[in-house]
């Protein structure tokens, strides 16, 4: 993190930050000192505007949206256009992230690796992701986008309500909601685009309600 100018570390149910931990941190002890520790994943991410999950396990089927990952080099430039807090979510050394943890994120990224050995050591994976973002930050102009967590939740809420209003098949709802979240995660809409989309959804819902009267 210190090598690539990242300072804000959040840990969920970590092991003890003991002397060995500080010894390995070398000249980055201040990152450990200022780290935030939570015992609950959802509590740790509740104030993050855009969540990026990481995984070596991806789906080869476009219809399975949960683990439909994008290569980090395709995403790093786009992430820099976002305003607000961006959270990079790394899982456990032995297992990675659970499905429900990935479902809470806006997009899923992966580091392209050999098909014969997909999984990387956690510290190496963190280093490569942060390096990619660091290089992008120093070689691109940043064009701000403004949609944050509050707007996103309203947008997802409208989409969920729309599915309810059209009696969308119950067994398909969860996968379709994840698909929409991933779609918006890739698009990274601006505030102007967000308000236009919300206006369309609002009008559709009004028309549906009027047709039922």
Jot down its keywords:
single chain, 213 residues, alpha/beta, Alpha/beta knot, 2 domains, four-stranded parallel β-sheet, 9 helices, 48% helix, elongated
Short description:
This protein is α/β, with parallel strands linked by helices and 213 residues long. It is built from 9 helices and 6 strands, in the order E-H-H-E-H-E-E-H-E-H-E-H-H-H-H.
Account of the 3D structure:
It contains nine helices and six strands, in the order βααβαββαβαβαααα. It has 213 residues and is α/β, with parallel strands linked by helices. The strands form two sheets. It has a four-stranded parallel beta sheet. The radius of gyration is 19 Å and the shape is elongated. The termini are far apart.
Low-confidence stretches: none
- Separation, N- and C-terminal Cα atoms: 58 Å
Largest sheet: 4 strands, parallel
User: What structural class should be given to the helix and strand makeup?
Assistant: alpha/beta
Shape: elongated
CATH class of the largest domain: Alpha Beta
Number of H/I helices: 9
CATH architecture of the largest domain: 3-Layer(aba) Sandwich
């Amino acid at each position: 993190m210190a090598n690539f100018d990242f300072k804000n570390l959040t840990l969920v149910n970590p092991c003890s930050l003991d002397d060995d931990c500080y010894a390995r941190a070398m000249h980055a002890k201040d990152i450990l000192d200022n780290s935030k520790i939570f015992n609950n994943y959802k509590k740790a991410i509740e104030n993050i505007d855009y969540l990026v999950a990481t995984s070596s396990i991806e789906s080869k089927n476009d219809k399975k949206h949960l683990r439909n990952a994008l290569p980090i080099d395709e995403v790093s430039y786009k992430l820099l256009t976002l305003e607000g807090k961006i959270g990079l979510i790394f899982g456990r050394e032995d297992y990675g992230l659970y499905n429900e943890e990935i479902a809470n994120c806006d997009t899923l990224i992966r580091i392209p690796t050999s098909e014969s050995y997909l999984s990387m050591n956690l510290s190496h994976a963190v280093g490569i992701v942060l390096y990619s973002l660091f290089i992008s930050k120093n070689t691109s102009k940043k064009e701000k986008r403004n949609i944050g967590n509050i707007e996103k939740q309203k947008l997802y809420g409208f989409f969920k309500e729309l599915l309810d209003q059209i009696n969308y098949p119950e067994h398909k709802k969860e996968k379709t909601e994840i698909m929409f979240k991933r779609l918006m995660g890739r698009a990274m809409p601006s505030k102007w685009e967000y308000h236009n989309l919300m206006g369309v959804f609002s009008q559709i819902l009004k028309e549906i309600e009027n047709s039922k009267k």
